[in-house]
């Protein structure tokens, strides 16, 4: 216990004194519950000795005893809930010692050097963070949440490591980053701090239980107690962190500065990889199976683009921390699936509608299908708005390379009429995943539909250009189309959620715990769908190809080079109703706007 004592002294008396302040809140709450019982005992004793004879003391004693019994009953139930309620446990991928013996050896060596207890186990999280998590609560053992050494009474906390660190960092850097985290096992073993943490976690769990079951008389006092000890609990954790940091000062101090720079870089690259690359795949019902391996490519690309980070790529010749794992690919796949569950709400296991995708297949399996599905949804929305009884008149102006004009209701674009071709038939492979399955009817309707009521034949880019030209402004076609797309997409997502109900029996989590992005606006959705339509037309008629950028996700490749100049031209059409910048771009690329695109 000498190591524990010294580490507490190094950070205090702050941590221990704050822990005692938290425990005093518990003691006062217990005193409040026992006060009516103590008063009842005094009254009963006084009545028995004849000191309080006659009325009204008999009635007073009876009322006080009844109140005391009720308070004791409610207090006992509340205490049982606090003690038995299961505190929240972060979803992680458990990492046994057999799966990572070198990593366990590294962590134990750190603990020995700092004279603190080693963590009871190691787990991985798909995030750029690392912490200690106590999983020795009795409720965790009853619910089967924890097992092995980590669930034993009084066990040291579990070390949770961000999986991107293992793939991006070198072994020495990971060691330097983990040193202050592992040092926190010392304060965690101190009885007062452990008791205070258990009390706070129990109150937090009681609030959750009371809220879920409608037991306000449990949730309300738990919230009150949390408010009373919130400041002291926060200061206690700061003191623990300071003590752990002091203890880790002598362990790879010089390297820790460099390692912290890598933490910031890893966070930036990981965020871009999730929001720009993984999210489009998740929405298609596919999940990239090797996100952690992908983060190396993403961060290398980020280092290449950022002149301040040019020197970071030279580290790649050193031993990566993922070499500490016996089967990095298996662990990567497990953490990638967990990332999809946490950040998107996907099922907890793979299935026919939730299948993995390799990076090499990403352009064809995700990017191309995403563009085709969005193009189909756009034309379906145009069909819905092209009501012959009240069709908005199309604007006059150039309709294509031949200079033809887009007529109003009932007219047919000359460029489109002569080149209309039957749409491709829909195959079962048109889409996969819950979202794609829900939208398959949309694809079929758009692909097999006859010439639309607005006079354009087939799903052509010319139809989109003609309808959106001059259609900007509030109350215009662009606004109506944006609203329609938002409604259609929301309906498809609800249908996907309903269809995925059977997956809940397999352990799905239908709502993301940590959503990556807020809902997209109607204008953003319209711009995305128009851009998808342009990309489909470029692929079908100008020899372009779908591609993937490690930091920006789906991209259009022309001659093997990424075209990053498309987005502002699409925005000119969507926001201003001006098609000329986009038409010039299409003409230079050789895209035939009158040719129907393939929607599957």
Task: Please characterize this protein's 3D structure.
- It is a single chain.
- By secondary structure, the chain is an alpha/beta fold.
- Helices cover 58% and strands 6% of the residues.
- Strands 1-2-4-3 form a four-stranded mixed sheet. The chain has a three-stranded antiparallel sheet with strand order 7-8-9.
- A hairpin with a 3-residue loop joins strand 7 and strand 8 (553-558).
- Helix 2 runs antiparallel to helix 10, helix 9 (191-213) packs antiparallel against helix 10 and helix 21 (522-542) packs across helix 22 (567-576).
- The longest helix has 35 residues, at 14-48.
- It is flat and about 105 Å long.
- The termini are far apart.
- Residues 1-10, 388-449 and 501-508 have low confidence and may be disordered.
Features:
alpha/beta; 23 helices; three-stranded antiparallel β-sheet; 9 strands; 600 residues
Query: How much helix is in the residues?
Result: 55-70%
Strand order of the largest sheet: 1-2-4-3
Q: In terms of per-residue confidence, which ranges show pLDDT below 50 for 5 or more consecutive residues?
A: 1-10, 388-449, 501-508
Number of helices: 23
State which percent range the strand residues make up: 5-15%
Task: Sum up the overall morphology in one term.
Answer: flat
Mean pLDDT across all residues, rounded?
81
**Largest sheet at a glance?**
4 strands, mixed
- Distance between termini? 67 Å
Give a count of the beta strands, DSSP E runs of length 2 or more: 9
Radius of gyration based on Cα positions: 32 Å
The secondary-structure class comes to alpha/beta
């Amino acid at each position: 216990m000498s190591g524990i004592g010294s580490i507490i002294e190094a950070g205090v008396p702050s941590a221990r004194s704050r822990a005692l302040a938290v425990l005093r809140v518990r003691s006062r709450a217990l005193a409040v519950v026992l006060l009516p019982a103590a008063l009842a005992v005094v009254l009963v004793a006084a009545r028995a000795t004849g000191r309080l004879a006659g009325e009204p003391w008999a009635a007073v004693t009876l009322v006080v005893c009844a109140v005391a019994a009720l308070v004791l009953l409610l207090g006992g139930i509340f205490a049982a809930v606090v003690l038995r309620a299961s505190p929240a446990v972060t979803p992680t991928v458990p990492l046994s010692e057999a799966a990572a013996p070198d990593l366990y050896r590294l962590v134990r060596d750190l603990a020995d050097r700092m004279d603190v207890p080693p963590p009871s186990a190691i787990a991985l999280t798909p995030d750029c963070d690392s912490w200690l998590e106590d999983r020795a609560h009795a409720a965790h053992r009853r619910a089967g949440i924890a097992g092995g050494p980590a669930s034993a009474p009084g066990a040291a906390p579990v070390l949770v490591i961000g999986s991107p660190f293992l793939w991006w960092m070198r072994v020495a850097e990971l060691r330097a980053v983990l040193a202050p985290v592992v040092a926190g096992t010392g304060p965690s073993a101190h009885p007062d701090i452990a008791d205070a943490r258990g009390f706070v976690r129990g109150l937090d769990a009681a609030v959750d239980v009371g809220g879920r079951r409608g037991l306000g008389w449990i949730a309300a006092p738990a919230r009150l107690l949390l408010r009373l000890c919130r400041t002291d609990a926060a200061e206690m954790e700061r003191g623990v962190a300071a003590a752990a940091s002091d203890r880790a000062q002598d362990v790879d101090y010089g390297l820790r500065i460099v390692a912290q720079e890598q933490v910031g870089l890893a966070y930036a690259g990981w965020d871009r990889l999730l929001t720009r690359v993984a999210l489009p795949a998740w929405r298609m019902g596919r999940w990239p199976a090797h996100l952690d391996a992908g983060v190396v490519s993403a961060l290398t690309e980020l280092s290449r683009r950022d002149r301040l980070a040019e020197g970071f790529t030279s580290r790649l010749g050193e031993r990566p921390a993922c070499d500490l794992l016996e089967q990095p690919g298996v662990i990567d796949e497990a953490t990638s699936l967990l990332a999809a569950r946490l950040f998107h709400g996907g099922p907890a296991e793979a299935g026919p509608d939730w299948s993995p995708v390799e990076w090499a297949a990403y352009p064809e399996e995700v990017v191309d299908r995403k563009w085709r599905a969005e193009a189909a949804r756009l034309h379906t929305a145009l069909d819905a708005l092209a009501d012959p009884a009240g069709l908005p008149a199309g604007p006059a102006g150039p309709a294509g390379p031949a200079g033809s004009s887009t007529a109003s209701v009932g007219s047919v674009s000359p460029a489109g009429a002569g080149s209309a071709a039957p749409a491709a038939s829909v195959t079962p492979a048109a889409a996969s995943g819950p979202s794609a399955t829900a939208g398959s009817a949309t694809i079929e309707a758009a692909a097999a539909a006859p010439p639309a009521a607005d006079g354009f034949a087939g799903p052509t880019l010319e139809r989109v250009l003609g309808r959106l030209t001059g259609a900007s402004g509030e109350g215009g076609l662009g606004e109506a189309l944006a609203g329609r797309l938002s409604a259609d997409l929301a309906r498809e997502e609800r249908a996907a959620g309903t269809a995925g109900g059977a997956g809940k029996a397999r352990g799905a989590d239908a709502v993301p715990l940590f959503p990556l992005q807020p809902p997209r606006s109607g204008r953003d959705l319209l711009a995305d769908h128009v851009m998808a339509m342009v990309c489909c037309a470029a692929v079908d008629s100008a020899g372009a190809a779908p591609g993937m950028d490690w930091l920006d996700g789906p991209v259009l490749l022309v001659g093997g080079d990424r075209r990053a100049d498309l987005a502002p031209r699409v925005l000119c059409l969507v926001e201003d109703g001006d098609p000329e910048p986009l038409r010039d771009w299409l003409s230079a690329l050789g895209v035939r706007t009158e040719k129907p695109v393939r929607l599957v």
